[in-house]
Amino acid sequence: MLRLAAPGYLRFSQSNELTATFGGGEANVAVSLANYGIPVDFVTRLPKNDIARACEMDLKSYGVGTDKIVWGGERLGIYFLETGAVSRASKVVYDRAHSAVSEIEKGMVEWEKVFENANWFHWTGITPAISQNAADVCLEAIQKANEMGITVSCDLNYRKNLWNYGKTAGEVMPELVAGTDIVLGNEEDAEKVLGVKPEGVDVTGGEVKGEAYVSVSKQIMEQFPRCKKVITTLRGSINANHNSWSGVLWDGENLYEAPTYQITHIVDRVGGGDSFMGGLIYGLLTYTEDDQKALNFAVAASCLKHTIYGDANLATIAEVEKLMEGDASGRVAR
Amino acid sequence: MLRLAAPGYLRFSQSNELTATFGGGEANVAVSLANYGIPVDFVTRLPKNDIARACEMDLKSYGVGTDKIVWGGERLGIYFLETGAVSRASKVVYDRAHSAVSEIEKGMVEWEKVFENANWFHWTGITPAISQNAADVCLEAIQKANEMGITVSCDLNYRKNLWNYGKTAGEVMPELVAGTDIVLGNEEDAEKVLGVKPEGVDVTGGEVKGEAYVSVSKQIMEQFPRCKKVITTLRGSINANHNSWSGVLWDGENLYEAPTYQITHIVDRVGGGDSFMGGLIYGLLTYTEDDQKALNFAVAASCLKHTIYGDANLATIAEVEKLMEGDASGRVAR
Amino acid sequence: MLRLAAPGYLRFSQSNELTATFGGGEANVAVSLANYGIPVDFVTRLPKNDIARACEMDLKSYGVGTDKIVWGGERLGIYFLETGAVSRASKVVYDRAHSAVSEIEKGMVEWEKVFENANWFHWTGITPAISQNAADVCLEAIQKANEMGITVSCDLNYRKNLWNYGKTAGEVMPELVAGTDIVLGNEEDAEKVLGVKPEGVDVTGGEVKGEAYVSVSKQIMEQFPRCKKVITTLRGSINANHNSWSGVLWDGENLYEAPTYQITHIVDRVGGGDSFMGGLIYGLLTYTEDDQKALNFAVAASCLKHTIYGDANLATIAEVEKLMEGDASGRVAR
Amino acid sequence: MLRLAAPGYLRFSQSNELTATFGGGEANVAVSLANYGIPVDFVTRLPKNDIARACEMDLKSYGVGTDKIVWGGERLGIYFLETGAVSRASKVVYDRAHSAVSEIEKGMVEWEKVFENANWFHWTGITPAISQNAADVCLEAIQKANEMGITVSCDLNYRKNLWNYGKTAGEVMPELVAGTDIVLGNEEDAEKVLGVKPEGVDVTGGEVKGEAYVSVSKQIMEQFPRCKKVITTLRGSINANHNSWSGVLWDGENLYEAPTYQITHIVDRVGGGDSFMGGLIYGLLTYTEDDQKALNFAVAASCLKHTIYGDANLATIAEVEKLMEGDASGRVAR
Amino acid sequence: MLRLAAPGYLRFSQSNELTATFGGGEANVAVSLANYGIPVDFVTRLPKNDIARACEMDLKSYGVGTDKIVWGGERLGIYFLETGAVSRASKVVYDRAHSAVSEIEKGMVEWEKVFENANWFHWTGITPAISQNAADVCLEAIQKANEMGITVSCDLNYRKNLWNYGKTAGEVMPELVAGTDIVLGNEEDAEKVLGVKPEGVDVTGGEVKGEAYVSVSKQIMEQFPRCKKVITTLRGSINANHNSWSGVLWDGENLYEAPTYQITHIVDRVGGGDSFMGGLIYGLLTYTEDDQKALNFAVAASCLKHTIYGDANLATIAEVEKLMEGDASGRVAR
Amino acid sequence: MLRLAAPGYLRFSQSNELTATFGGGEANVAVSLANYGIPVDFVTRLPKNDIARACEMDLKSYGVGTDKIVWGGERLGIYFLETGAVSRASKVVYDRAHSAVSEIEKGMVEWEKVFENANWFHWTGITPAISQNAADVCLEAIQKANEMGITVSCDLNYRKNLWNYGKTAGEVMPELVAGTDIVLGNEEDAEKVLGVKPEGVDVTGGEVKGEAYVSVSKQIMEQFPRCKKVITTLRGSINANHNSWSGVLWDGENLYEAPTYQITHIVDRVGGGDSFMGGLIYGLLTYTEDDQKALNFAVAASCLKHTIYGDANLATIAEVEKLMEGDASGRVAR
Predict the structure, then answer these.
(1) Is-above-0.90 flag for pTM?
(2) Which of C267, C319, C333 sits opposite A92 (nearest CB)?
């Protein structure tokens, strides 16, 4: 997906230059993983034009495999981004209707071949939100992954402005989540997508308490027996420049809580959740017996994402580990 | 329509900055006229989002009336532009499918009200190329304009990459041209849109001879009895930076030929035809008895457009007249 | 007026690019009002050159009427802006001497015609500071407005570097304020312009207490019997990036106090007062019986201005209302 | 003087970025000379503000002495530049009225001290065009230079838009030229400033013939007996991007003609004449017995100036000499 | 290698922004081939730092294999580029001393493994120019390639400013060329590197005649019996913006001559020879029985390179073929 | 030294534009002093190329004398800078190996002549870190300065990534410090360079207590009897955007402590220590009997440096004094 952002804090009407980068939920996770040295492929459908080819080049530069991309369709999805400041919120104008991936059809991707040497499949709630076709293909993939014994993870990623092809998230998502092993979301996702609601938490501003999410996690695991871990990202929106950030992981028995970071001078908040997921998959693959460490890696990685421009997290393992070890001083390395 | 251009001569894959301006056939003509002090309204359909509102602000800055715009639909049409050099051609990637105007419907524009104090209606062959709906509304407008005795002009403007909703230009355009008083086009348009072909002219490179177009003009006027003037733009593509530029006007009796300009260092060639049309309408309205002068104004105006960045022609009347009078020296005015 | 700003936090000597926007006290208020959908005209004098015409185009893009501008004179006023950070103050270098508006003369503007369908006239203390001529024409306008029963508002707007044509603000302003119904200022304005001084308030840093300004407001209303409301903006300058911001309104009987906002990451502080005035006029026109709400709108609107680049406030009514309702979280809208 | 140029070929109304450089007739000559290693001071009057200080820093970076600048006055002169292309001319909007140097007064510069170790004084026709004061001080300087036996050169530099303080160039300039040893100008300057007219030369376009200027030179030397050399720059304006360029020198006995250069892709034409003068002074000082070589250096140097952005000529002696020797191939040096 | 170019036509001292791209003789050929869909690896030595990693990302984005790069050493080579115009030549400031590749040592690259599935090895005269070590490793590679029956090509690429480690090109190159099957060069290379000199050709300006190079080619093939084809690039430097461009190929029996292109508005001339080589290798691999067509592809491809910014040729096969077929009109594709 | 910085908070791999400025420990101090009006020369060795000449021009623009620079050698040292945010640290990639100054040799600088009218010599620990040659010349200079009775100051400036020519700072620096009168450093410098360690101070984050450094200062003065003052900069790294900043001065008898500033929105932290030194030298020269004031000037000056882009401190004396007097409000000056 092409992201076109007004530079700095300019409003859309103020700039005749737009900064073009590429992003999107699943792509961002793929870049994170490639960046940590994990072999990864991005599977999508792109139109045969120069803009989409530039998108593919971008993915290749990060080391993301692009051989499994299906080429065809009318257009590349676009979103326009205006970055807010203090009490002025950032604005996203979606222009994703009729994108190549929204018109993907079952059978276009040879999932069996795609999954041949894979051991993990990740999807997000954005894909089924785009169109019935995309939702169908997403289900097709999840079912094949389940069949082949591949771990499936998802980020619920509720976007109210996207669900407009006639079905609600609540109607479509449960069948997909049912085939998923690892579920990531925030408080709003759980409520809007799965109808599960935390208690006593004010999501608009200030600090949020992780403990309150155990009940949410439990409800999800009951509803979806395949699910082994529920991870909740905790964002406190002090203002557009200053967020607090943390996360909790429930494995059915224990609640792991990560430290809370104060991100006082956000550079780019978009892709924060995706970088959490990228960090989490890396963490779960790397610290196989240590969910606390995997969670800490995910939170630290995504904390660093907020300091990096664009959708993609370009923080290195060394930087994430330094932050995990407690050094948040930002002292110059020289 | 939003135009997103890679800066300078960069290829799409080379730049992460895109220059955003607004344009489109009819809008460009409207800006030309407003710039010459002619009261003008731009009638289209735009979606209710910040990108379209920025487009409206741009039109207002030039003095184009925007009160008659109909608001609704999914998206603003986009085209991506990569500027060529020497023997490398410029590239246009259209992303106009499903734009608000392509999904316009008959009855959405109150043409009677729109035309209340108007005496001229201009349309281009791009609109009916986009969708059946747009073609229908275009016909609706032409018929109402004919009914109300308003002069109708069109620019045939053949774009092969746009005609893909199942009909060809040849099937759709004749009915529209039939209601038109003033027809502008180049050699390719006449052939592809109306099946009328000039003789003995090589359109790929070098100078072209205006005389050969009398036969084309005559054929058009026979086919479409309402048509009073046929104007042909004459572009010689020496290379992407150097074009020759002229035009001829046939009024059914005489062929008026304008001088030929050598545009040796093109700044921006897009919108050249639209600026010709803008200059022509101004010329016909201003030099009411002097088609030669009207034509000369059109050619000089559009020659200057090639030196101005963006779709819109911002040359002033004084600059056009100076060039018409023969001063092409480009000497600094100070 | 042309504003030429060094980009980012660069000093004048560091940049060979200057960002050109247009602004000025009254123009900024006009843009605010146009932006809220209030029909508004900007009345000034501009020289007949391309720079001033670009300024007019900018105003038109926002929907501000420019038909009443008087054309003539030598030059467009300029100010150079260098943006400070933390404890380094922003710098303004004025280059307004001999601007077209400073050499305006009585009779040049046909005020009776200008005011024909108007019901509000706003002026600022910057105009009479520029030249005796400008002061004279300002008085001429106020008197005509009074005569025609039009509400008059002013922003005292003291600028010590501007008053250098031989008279002090204290000598010129009272006669103008005498014809004014709504007076806006801050503590410094009241003291320097009208000789009225609050007590026990440290204006250099930290939070300021609104209550102390009742005495100031009362003194103003006694001195100027026409005055119906005195509004005071309350800025606490923690540092160049972080200000607190609020305001109080005294209607002769009650003191209305707005909430105080912490603007922790200022984008552009210039035009803050003008956006307050724009919000206030909108508020007083809209919430006709509710001064508290009008004040709250003004404070929230101008709080948002600090997050927007340039002199003009481009915050929407929806954004202002969201902040008025207490949502200062800056969460992404998507 | 501050030059504010719209970038690339953008019109004033198209850009919200202006490129700021410093320039002006005499300053440009000073930079040329400093660049060739000739010790040189720039004498002017600048206001005490940060913009003028940045101008001083710029001069210092080139090695131009700034100790003799007189500080005071209201403002730094400005000119706005829009760069033309092909048949669209560049535009200059002067904003020099009331600049510090225009309000300079006799006695402000201690010319005797300034000239202490000097052997050359250069002035241009722009200075007396600005104001009576500037003309008076210019005369004061010339007279002192004459008194102290310092060579005086001038560039007639006629600018019709500047002469508007009530006197014409023809009234003011002769007295100044009378004290001048070396006079540079083009055909237009000679006519507008001194009333001397060449014959049979079309200045608007195409090639010009040097021979026709002997008569002009002779007339000047008769009118001004102090004058020892008259140099004429020969510009053929094919279009805004392509000029031919040469010059002739008349020493009272012989006409020296330089080769004519085709400058087919002009980068920046402003300051072309100044760079000619800079090259000429260098040439006359260096090739003391060889006026042909001095002229050739001047023409080659200023030919190269057309390939350099900004007012100042940054071509090196080596580059000028390479071109003088006939290598105009522009082959990469590596 | 990192290329740092002053933007536009600015001199080094004029810009505080440098445009960073990556390039270098062999890398440019690799990008060309990858761009045509030929599997290709770039073999070099890069230091372990973020700048070199960005270089690797750039190569990966084009699809060039980077797995065979050897990591180590002190620094990445740099060159600074200032782009000339008209008669002002471009300037290259090399800063390649002590680059990682200049300190490469025999044995560091496992050539046997590198060449495992390869059938072509290309090297350029720049590598042995850098250091004795680089020359040694280059020889090591050529010998292994010869041993394994891999086609070896080279571009003589003489750079006088690089040969400064104590040996001349004439001392080092012959041994390397002796192992080479396909030799590319221009007239200057042949003379400076191999001591072979064409007759009657003026290389500084104007058109050059291909025929004169048969004798040069013959001499090379006699001197180096392994050599099967000698290709000469023919550049006519009209000026820095306008070159003519062609090439000839001698296969021991016939001289194939390509058409000559007039490149009238060069965008970026650096990498022109490399893009010729890239096109030639593609051509020889694709049109296996048709050297004329291979040559024509190489000349057309590199003609297009001159219209593309940066060292790398991003012209597509379709664009090259269109030009080969004679369409140099640069008409917009839409 | 050339500094090439990725713009804004972009990572190296994200930007193809690098912002080029010049800097380096001693140069930064020189610019600070020149900026305060103190006559100062920068002594170094620069290669004869255009990049180094641009560096010289930059120094001249600030008024730093460049006549004593020795020209020769291979290259100008470079460092690449990536600016961190919040918990992501800034990164410096040094590319200084083999710079002209690192290959300087004893005898190249005529120190006796350089020091002729000087009364102060400043060096930093960066110079001896680069190479044995640079260390030798540094010692040569210190010894000559001692001989001629010139005050010598140094900034210990430990950079672990620079010391890689085979000796440690601990081996080289003591002999140099022994000839030094005024020693500046922070806690890390003292430990790594001189083996002197403060107690009970956590240097990674938060506030640091000045008192703890008395012991360090005493140890230094005992070890180096020539040393008259030890100054310690106190930086608390809350995060990459927010530092606290202060300093203490020990004169052998008293500890002077400066106020601590909260720099909450850092613009550019590089050169902070150099600006402290520049301020300190100015302070000691100006407030000759008042070490407290000299220290306060140094701390306030360097506090302001953090708000200025680039290595050099461009804060004016007036700005520093305003901050010293307690006004940290950053209110607009207009």
Answers:
(1) yes
(2) C333
